[in-house]
Amino acid sequence: MLQQNFNLFTTEDSHAAWNNTLLDKLLSSLDQRLDRLEQLKKGNLDCRDLGLAAREYFHGIHLYLKAKEYSPCAWEVVRVETERSFPSCKNPQRNVNK
What we know:
Layout: H1 2-9, H2 12-15, H3 20-41, H4 48-67, H5 72-85
Helix pairs in contact: 1-3
């Protein structure tokens, strides 16, 4: 899910709806978490159901943005949804050292 979030917020269209400083902080936090998860993943089994659910979730976001022609308003809806679904993304610096 973190990888999908990272991919979503690195698209060119997402930049118009976000303050660049906040977007940089979010992307940095997601990147650090991805690195940490990659290290942990080596010892864990994959959860196929969770992966499928994550893909469906982000595919839905992609379809929504596409239908709304990637408007700034649509990106704001996605931002709010992301904060609701992933509370730690609201304040990325809070969990950097965990």
